[in-house]
Design brief:
Helices cover 37% and strands 37% of the residues. It is built from 5 helices and 7 strands.
């Protein structure tokens, strides 16, 4: 597996991983139409280009024999960063790809003297919450996020670097 910065050539695969991950993780509480609309909006070519090119943004992809199998997108603010998205293709859940992406991001953030990382996860996403807790994150806040016509509870987790 290789972890590298994302490029424009990765955009379609990023959307595919996002869509498959969202459907698998959120199937019991977010409908397919809302997932498709959100993925189309949040992962449009324009949104992804901004994420790849904007200073202070880290967008990494994990690739292997099956092509692009995961990605993470984070932004930096002064001495802390927000991990906005970290998704792995469901066929590769449990293979260590999410942890490898996080460890690379963590190392990159340490290299630029960041002090902590925040991660947002839907409060109903037990798998995502368990993932962040295994990495040492602790719940520090709550928020809401709009997905399609619905509003969902979001938990904010933080870890010191």
């Amino acid at each position: 597996m290789e972890i590298r910065p994302a490029s424009e050539e990765d955009f379609e695969s990023v959307r595919s991983v996002a869509r498959r991950s969202w459907r698998e993780a959120y199937e019991n509480f977010v409908d397919d139409e809302s997932i498709d609309g959100t993925v189309s909006s949040w992962y449009s070519d324009e949104s992804l280009a901004a994420a790849v090119e904007k200073p202070g943004t880290v967008f990494l992809v994990a690739t292997g024999a099956d092509g692009l199998v995961g990605f993470c997108h984070a932004v930096c603010y002064e001495d802390e960063g927000d991990l906005l998205r970290l998704y792995v293709d469901p066929d590769h859940w449990g293979d260590g790809i999410g942890t490898a992406l996080y460890e690379r991001l963590r190392g990159d953030f340490r290299d630029i003297n960041m002090n902590r990382i925040r991660a947002m996860v839907l409060s109903q996403n037990d798998m995502g919450i368990e993932f962040y807790q295994r990495l040492g994150f602790e719940k520090t806040d709550e928020a809401t996020v709009e997905i399609g016509p619905g509003t969902y509870e979001e938990s904010v987790y933080t870890v010191a670097l």
